[in-house]
Each structure stands twice: as C-alpha cells, then as structure tokens.
Design goal:
Layout lengths: L18 H102 L19 H8 L3 H5 L8 H10 L1
Amino acid sequence: MSEKVVVPKFEIPSETMHPAIKAVAIIGALLLGTTAILGIAIMHRRSEQEAAVAKRDAIIAERAAEAKAAEEKAKAEAAAKVLAAKEAARKAQEEKDAKVAAAKAAAAQQKLASADEDKSGGGRHHHHHEHGKAGKSAGAGAAVASKGGDDKKAAGPKSTRDNAAIDKLLASFK
C-alpha cells in the first residue's frame, strides 16, 4: 500500500457561480433597480398632474360660481330697478289721479259756487236757467246743467271766473 491513491476533484456547481452568470445577475439586479426608480418617478409625476388637474377644476368651479353669483346679483338688481320703476309709475299715476280728482272737485265746487251766486242774484240776471222745483234746491246749478238744452252755456267757462281759488286748491295737493 504504498501507492498513492489519487482521488479526482469533483466540483459541485452549487458552490460556486460561473462568472457569466454572476454578470447576468448583476445586470438583472441593476435593471430591476432602475425600473423601480423609473416607476416611482412616473407615479410621482402622475400624482402631480392629477393634483394640478384637480386644482384647475377647483379654480374653474370657483370662477363659475362667482360668475353665477354675479349674474344672479345683476338679475336681482335689474328686478329691483324694474320694481322701483313700477312703484314710481304707480305713485305718479296716483298723483295724477289725485290731481285729476282735485281738479274735478275744484270744478264741481266752482260750479256750486257759481250756482249759488246765480241763485242769490248777484246783480246779474241769467235767462238760461229754468226756475222751477229744481231751481229751489241746494244743487240747482248741477240739476239745471244736467237737464239738457242749455248744457253748453252752464258747463262752459265764464270769462269773469276767478281761478285763484282753483290754483290755491291745486297747490295744496302738491
């Protein structure tokens, strides 16, 4: 037994890795790392874009709400102006009606005064009045004027009429 026994060397592949496989693994890890970095950057950029779009939409909605509020305010002001104009027209119509009523009342009062003056004589003699039952009542001038025939003479303005009383009455309504 003096001879040496040579045992062959066995390499187990699991113990050491081939340098080419090591290089592929390193390149794969670098590729995986850069892909992860790129994915994170893309997601960050997308979230910034979505935030910008949301901010833009909020600004647009705010401006639309302001425009709508301004439009509503303008409509309300226009409605208020229309209402004020209607109120002013109504007041003007009431004042006009009051002036017309005052003028009618003054004319009626003047007719009654002239009828009383005619009834009492007043130094003048008028042939256009009918003297009868209606002439003796308090409203003789109005009754005679409404009878017919001599309407134009009784209703027409007299040249000697004093308009100061009518002017004074109209001035009191202003």
